[in-house]
Amino acid sequence: MYNFNIMVFPMYLLSIIFSLSSSSWILIWMGMEMNLISFIFIMLNHPIYMMKMESSMKYFLIQSLGSLIFLLTINNSMIYYNEKFFIFAMVPPMALMLKSGMAPLHSWTPMIVNKFSMKNVFLFFTLQKLVPFFILFSSWNYMISYISNINIIIGTIGGMTQSSLIKMMIFSSINNTGWMMMSMMNSFSLFLLYFMNYFILSFFMMKFIFKLQIKWIIQINVLSMKIKWFYFMTVMSLSGFPPFMGFTPKWLIMKNLYAHYTLNILLGIIFSIISLFFYIKSSLIMLTSYSSMKKINKIKLLSTNIFMLINLTGPFMFYIFN
């Protein structure tokens, strides 16, 4: 098992670097296929083999479809490269959106990603999106504002109706995808700040779900008050609520893009407020409720304290980057 991880994970990282550093469409496609195969191997490296076999097969079929569409249409789209809204020029970016689970081609993600292990969910939320992000921005940047708006709207509306914690995180990832796309409209450094911020928050959230084996949001009611505050701070930070660390990147996006992309920023603010209302309402009910059941506390006290301290660095980040 250990030797398997040593071989596959470096190949996985190299496939991402290979795709991002390639200048030819064929090489980019080859890098994405290397990335797909290595990610499938990582998925299969799990004790619950049959469940992961099913989800990995479905994931492979979706990714193969996206890769096939991308490969078959990329040559035609280059012929009509200056025709921004010509049908052949629109298909390759939609294939990339399908592969990365962006809205509106996201309908497969809740059903399939919900069966991933927490490590694979974390990789899908973060590193798996890097290559489509940069290809979309470098070659179809006129579509970025539309894609970001759709992801923010669908991520907010979809997340509000979920009682499953993993599915809520999937729609939160779609929402944060829209904000990351908006950050790329300003600068690479702002995107890097937002991505690293989301990387850290997703890591702690996936660790929280994995350690406690939580599937439904209502299960958090039987946990200790410290774990409830841990969940509350994480969700608020993912939603961009001040003074947590997730607020600073969103504030910088709003500050830098408001003059040129006013409608995008207003939509982002409106739907962020809607999602915050739902998350605060559910979290306050959770924090004020009392359960007579035995409190469960499986996460080490040290790790929760460290994350709470990291999450409260929002004011310092605001002072440094603002």
TrEMBL record:
Membrane-related topology note: Multi-pass membrane protein
Catalytic reaction(s) noted: a ubiquinone + NADH + 5 H(+)(in) = a ubiquinol + NAD(+) + 4 H(+)(out)
Keyword Lipoprotein part of the UniProt annotation: no
Gene Ontology BP, a term: mitochondrial electron transport, NADH to ubiquinone
Keywords: Electron transport, Membrane, Mitochondrion, Mitochondrion inner membrane, NAD, Respiratory chain, Translocase, Transmembrane, Transmembrane helix, Transport, Ubiquinone
Transmembrane segments: 6-27, 57-74, 86-109, 121-140, 152-171, 191-210, 230-252, 258-280, 301-321
Enzyme class (EC, first level): translocase
GO molecular function (one): NADH dehydrogenase (ubiquinone) activity
InterPro entries: Complex_I_Subunit_2, NADH_UbQ_OxRdtase_chain2, ND/Mrp_TM
Functional summary from the UniProt entry: Core subunit of the mitochondrial membrane respiratory chain NADH dehydrogenase (Complex I) which catalyzes electron transfer from NADH through the respiratory chain, using ubiquinone as an electron acceptor. Essential for the catalytic activity and assembly of complex I.
Name listed for the protein in its UniProt record: NADH-ubiquinone oxidoreductase chain 2
Species for this entry: Trioza erytreae (African citrus psyllid)
Organism taxonomic ancestry: Eukaryota, Metazoa, Ecdysozoa, Arthropoda, Hexapoda
Gene: nad2
